[in-house]
Amino acid sequence: MTANDRVVLDQLVQATKNEIEPTMADDEFFELFCAQSLLLNERLEEQEIKFGLIGGDAAQSGGVPTRFVHADSGGVCPALV
Asked: What is the C-alpha separation between 46 and 51, in angstroms, rounded?
């Protein structure tokens, strides 16, 4: 990633954070931003995406910031995960 790419990405993330979750910590919001971007075509609601965020530092989450399970192109009931 070039320095220019990094500046543009940082600005996009910050602008989105200011719009939808201005009080969330930067590292937590970045996880949400990435999950929303990756799951854009899955038509998940924001609460469904937030449910999949594990959060915490790498030591707490084992280096896995999110968890989503899809079967047959459909989400799995949270009670089953």
From this structure: 9
Report which DSSP code applies to 24.
S
* Cβ-contact 69, 44 below 8 angstroms: no
Q: Reduce the DSSP state of residue 57 to 3 states and report it.
A: coil
- Asked if 29 and 17 touch (Cβ cutoff 8 Å), the reply is yes
Q: Which long-range contacts (CB under 8 A, 24 or more apart) does 75-81 make?
A: 75/42, 75/44, 75/48, 78/51
pLDDT tens digit sequence for 26-70:
988 988 898 888 888 888 888 888 888 776 555 555 566 666 666
pTM given for the model: 0.69
